[in-house]
Amino acid sequence: MYGLSGASGRHCCLWCLIDGSTMTKPLAERSMSQPRNLHQLETDHRQFTESGGNIKRAKFFNNVIRPHLLDVPIDHVAIPALHISLGVFAKLYDLLEKAAHELDIQRACEEGKMVPSETQETPTSSFENHISRIRHAQNLEQEAEHKMAKAQRLLEIASWLNLAENADVQSTPPEVMQLYEQTSKLQAQATELENQEQAIIKSTSFQFRNGPSVQSLERVLREIGVERQAYHGGSFIGNHIHKCCQGDNMQRLCALIATAVPEKLPQIRQRAEEVASSYTELLRLFAACHGGYSVSRKLADHEIETLDANIKKFIHRYRATLPTASITPKMHMMEDHVIPWIRRWKLGLGFHGEQGAESIHARFNTLQRTYANIKNPTERLKAIVKEHNLSVLPQVAQMRP
Description:
Number of strands: 0
Shape: elongated
Mean pLDDT: 83
Low-confidence stretches: 115-124
Strand content: under 5%
Order of helices and strands: HHHHHHHHHHHHHHH
Helix content: 55-70%
Radius of gyration: 33 Å
Largest sheet: none
């Protein structure tokens, strides 16, 4: 709509000219970037076109590659609360899922070193099969080490016999030759076992979401009524975020990561508890931010200050907990643009966002069922609109033409 190249560009923000590297720095360590305006968009696009319009050079023109279609001033474009929450929560959940998968890998490696019980059943999942193959690979490694050690002992014996019995004779005694042959065979067998071990290690794996820790996350999501969109890369929708932010759902989401690791693996269990604790706090802070800016009502000054503090706490904790994780454009919008917009209008972002319009759909669907007995479609629509107007502005009933 405003001609920018997209979220992957160096200057991807619609509201300011910040670049990707500056986004990574806390707001306290930098100044607010220069805001965009329509005149700047026109200038950048003209210069981009005059330079040849090469998309690879868009970053030198603030990533403006097309003329803007709207003449609405950029400082009148509402900050998209729903998209911020969807993007930030999806980022946190993806990182949590990856951390859980790493725990599953560590657990599989450790359990692979353990001697299986005599009553252990045949593997029934890719995770159990992964552990079984690791155990097989480690058995091959031990057997190879045993053969190599035996070959080394035979080589030492053969060398000693050769020196003791053949000091003045050029030919090697038959018994020594036999020892050398046995040594060569053992070394070849050990090398073959090592090759088999490496082949198993390289080939064995389990699917990303098949480990017990990751599956515990999916189980909690289902319990709280969150079914990710299978045909959209497993993405979330707005209602999913609201459900996850309710009550202790964030804590439940993380707690099972720790309990999914058995106590017989104390080091991994401790690491799982650390992961659960870190992400519980991160998600709790995110929920406070989401609940603060997504409302569709007037906000008092103290509510705005509380929201400002919560956003700063969340961003600070995110950077401290996940120093190598990227700061996404939606996190930048939360950090830099949410509070200035709310301070300007004194209203939650939900008031200016699409959630208000979407909620009207549900209201009209209810009224449609209420007045379904009116056969004339025009009269039915008039009744629906009248009822809606009265519910939104009750004082209309007292007005007279």
